[in-house]
Amino acid sequence: MRTSLRLSTCILPTRRWADGGRALWERAEQLGFHTGYTYDHLSWRVPFRDGPWFGAVPTLTAAAGATARMRLGTLVTSPNFRHPVTLAKELLSLDDISSGRVTLGIGAGGNGFDATVLGREAWTPRERADRFAEFVPLLDRLLTEDTVTHEGTYYSAHAARGIPGCVQRPRLPFAVAATGPRGLRLAARHGQAWVTTGDPRLSATGTPEQSRQALRGQIAELGRACAEVGRDVAELDKVLLTGFTPEGAGLLDSVDAFVDFAGAHAELGFTELVVHAPIPDSVFAADQAVFEKVATEAAAQLA
Predict the structure, then answer these.
(1) CB 56, CB 90: distance < 8 Å
(2) In angstroms, rounded to a whole number, what is the distance separating the alpha carbons of residues 187 and 155?
(3) Which among 25, 22, 77, 35 is positioned nearest to 272, based on CA atoms?
(4) DSSP 8-class letter at 251
(5) Is 294:255 a contact under the CB 8 Å cutoff?
(6) How far apart are the two ends of the chain, measured CA to CA in Å?
(7) Considering Cα of 275, then 277, then 279, then 280, what sign does the dihedral take?
(8) pTM above 0.90, yes or no
(9) Dihedral of CA 203/207/208/211: which sign?
(10) Dist. CA 63–CA 28, nearest whole Å
(11) Is it true that the peptide bond before 246 is cis, omega within 30 degrees of 0?
């Protein structure tokens, strides 16, 4: 695919490693995807909630051993069940094992899925934003400094060691998922990429044109956030996790459908599109053959 638009995939952690899990990651690299991402949840929505679901960091560690070139990442990690100190140690280790191929997708989290599994009330939107605003800068420090001490409102670190640091310098890249003003400012300050799924209000009832207009507005807001901190918005990759716009999984109906979708979103300024690996009988159901053709043939049409 042309250098201005990369194609990546998201492989949900629903398969035992010895029963097809490893093969999915190996095949993704064979198909030429730029990055293989996975969700970082403890469980997810129906129909996945009552089925197999494995941890993101162990899955990515295994994927690092099964691949050699493809980048690996989370879409996305959140503070819902993570602490910056322990997460930093896991990421530093994963970055080392993968020889510097890790991208951390990170977001504020939501109401469902992981919000109550630890036996607490779900945080309000304001508290999620407050925690995210403290979590990201502290994680940044933990991955760039040898020793960190921090006393915060929500998170503390006491002489936390980050030796020897990441293979990627000064640290592995952050892809910050955000649409609100506070999250966009975090992306502008700390992100090497910005992630969106589009406007959730348009997913079920909106039109593709309405969705593109909303995405255009999000990118404009990102530009304003970057300007506030004196940063060029062009420095950030712009990542769209597909499957949640009005097109849904239909963008994988054919190579032509995907090329049309990709071209329209490249014109908006996106530099990376992420398509879910097909999962039968789910919202991500798609023809595996078309999925593979998108990976191998769409590149030539978009060049």
Answers:
(1) no
(2) 20
(3) 35
(4) G
(5) yes
(6) 6
(7) positive
(8) yes
(9) negative
(10) 10
(11) no
Report strand pairing: 71-77 vs 35-38.
parallel
Please state, in angstroms and rounded to a whole number, the distance separating the CA atoms of residues 119 and 129. 20
Residues making up the chain, counted from first to last: 303
What number of H helices and E strands is found in the chain? 8, 10
What is the identity of the amino acid at 250? G
pLDDT tens for the chain, residues 1 to 303 = 334 799 999 999 999 999 999 999 999 999 999 999 999 999 998 889 999 999 999 999 999 999 999 999 999 999 999 999 999 999 999 999 999 999 999 999 988 778 899 998 999 999 999 999 999 999 999 999 999 999 999 999 999 999 999 999 999 999 999 999 999 999 999 999 999 999 999 998 999 999 999 999 999 999 999 999 999 999 999 999 999 999 998 999 999 999 999 999 999 999 999 999 999 999 999 999 999 999 999 876 766
The one-letter amino acid code at 150 reads H
